[in-house]
TrEMBL record:
SMART domains associated with the record: FCD, HTH_GNTR
Keyword set includes Transcription regulation: yes
GO molecular function: DNA binding; DNA-binding transcription factor activity
UniProt keywords, alphabetically: DNA-binding, Transcription, Transcription regulation
Domain HTH gntR-type: start-end pairs: 13-85
Protein name: FadR family transcriptional regulator
Gene3D superfamilies recorded: GntR ligand-binding domain-like, Winged helix-like DNA-binding domain superfamily/Winged helix DNA-binding domain
Methyltransferase keyword on record: no
InterPro entries (alphabetical): GntR_C, TF_FadR/GntR_C, Tscrpt_reg_HTH_GntR, WH-like_DNA-bd_sf, WH_DNA-bd_sf
Organism encoding this protein: Glaciihabitans arcticus
Length: 247
């Protein structure tokens, strides 16, 4: 006897979802890899039994996600190419999600502290002299007394992301770079909202030098401690996102 239990409504997948799931399956089982070209739009539409406009829509979604590159596929009939390096898909999504309030300022703060304390302590072990020289160069540029908030924040981002890169962990530096780019506007607004941003900039400069010194001395504990203080300090002073809990 049949009962109402155990039955689930059949999922009606949209065309682009079905096309995506076939491509995903091929990537997961190794039949498709980064750098490969998909069949031409005409051939692929025929193989999948979908119209060319439907296929084009699917490819646009995959392009926005950073999975395929249509332009580098060699024209309309050259077939989209599977991308081998992370593009701006993640950062664009994250930016919108933050703007829509999916994550709070505290979520961002805590995630930054987690990623950056790990990065700084790992950088103390793994970074090279060349990394230190590049980090020092960024800090020297930040010392420009006439620097404006936008450029100061760009270099600040570059400094933090460069530390993450020096760990050799590509995913951590991608996550950090994406997160910093996504909160770019809030960071600049926080600087501009300060009564005396140049005074804060002096504190930031000093904190950066302390972080770099600990990394150079291979002192992982200090490097992690200093970066955590640095991030917390700025969120308090700048009231980033306007929702940082006091105390
Ligand atoms: Zn900083």
């Amino acid at each position: 006897m049949t009962t109402a239990e155990g039955w689930e409504p059949v999922q009606r997948l949209r065309t682009y979802e079905q096309v995506m799931s076939q491509i995903e399956e091929r990537i997961l089982d190794g039949r498709l890899k980064a750098g490969d070209h998909l069949p031409s739009e005409r051939d692929l539409a025929q193989l999948l039994g979908v119209s060319r406009p439907s296929l084009r829509e699917s490819l646009r979604v995959l392009e926005a996600l950073g999975v395929v590159d249509i332009r580098r596929g060699g024209g309309a009939d050259g077939g989209a190419m599977l991308v081998g390096t992370p593009g701006p898909g993640f950062v664009n999504l994250l930016k919108l999600q933050l703007a829509l309030g999916h994550f709070s300022a505290t979520d961002v703060l805590e995630t930054r502290v987690a990623l950056e304390t790990w990065s700084c302590s790992e950088a103390a072990y793994r970074s090279t002299d060349a990394d230190h020289a590049e980090l020092a160069e960024i800090l020297d540029l930040m010392d420009d007394p006439l620097i404006e908030t936008k450029e100061f924040n760009r270099l600040d981002t570059a400094f933090h992301v460069r530390i993450a890169e020096s760990t050799g962990n590509a995913l951590t530096s991608h996550l950090m770079g994406s997160l910093r780019t996504a909160i770019n506007r809030q960071m600049i607004e926080a600087y501009e909202g300060l009564a005396d941003w140049r005074a804060t900039a002096q504190v930031v400069r000093h904190e950066h030098r302390t972080i770099l010194e600990s990394i150079k001395k291979r002192d992982a504990t200090e490097a992690a401690r200093f970066v955590s203080l640095h991030i917390h300090d700025f969120y308090k002073t700048g009231n980033v996102g306007g929702t940082y809990p006091t105390g």
